[in-house]
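Re-run with default settings, no changes from the original entry. Doing this only to confirm the output is reproducible before filing.
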Amino acid sequence: MDAMAPAPRPPLGNAVDAAEPALATPSGKPGAAVGTMKLTRKAVLSRAKATELGSVRKLNCWGSRLTDISICHELPNIQVITFSVNNISDLEPVSQCQHLTELYLRKNRIASLTELFYLKKLPHLRILWLSENPCCGPDPHRYRMTVLRNLPSLQKLDNQLVTEEELSHALLEGEEITAPPAKLDLDNCCQNTTTESSGTDFTVESENELMNFSLEETNKIRQQLGMKPVPRDRFSSFSPRDMDGNQKNRNNILNAILLLLEDLDLEGLEVVHQTSGNKLQALQKKELHEER
């Protein structure tokens, strides 16, 4: 998984309260392409449970259809960001996050590896998940060598540990990126793009994509553990149209976890039990502290 996340599957993050505002709003920038979804200050503070942007350390916006993450310019102390499963194509805003150590960007719309130019400015970045983007191309070896050539301080790339041998090969086989990517004039294109609905309104297509993605994630993990893949008819035990977007995400994650539990032995279940118990105690202590 991407880290937590999932994020690595990326960090999963905490479930969002029903009253939480939408993570993104259609951009109001004059001339901007219709359908742009901008991550807002209010949404960041709500999701991070913070009172000011400078105090935000972790941010999880998995599966929020984001395209505009310019708010990252105002997150100088952020350390972990989960932006997987969105529509992000520009990484320039992330270049301002000088304390960033983990970045999860899997399954976005990053078209070119030249976007790595912006990540080269992050001195503490150690974990990057970039797979399933157009920039990865048809040659996984070339992709990995190029990423490591430009980000040699990474310890883990796409949920795989980086080795000293790989770093040596990357110096010879990877492409060095020395300039930022050329940007299209977005103000004069895509004017007829269909308007996006609010962050909680999912179409049938996006529901199916979310289901397929979660099933794919589950089976990837099962494959790594030597387990058989789960058929689709066993994966879904709920009606996605009866829930809002956040509830769907949470139920898909729970479904994946429960299916994995079926194949764990006693030792594995004990590990899960202990880990979840520690997490529960930590959350309970935090709630008690906030109430005081």
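The chain is about 35% helix and 10% strand. The longest strand covers residues 24-26.
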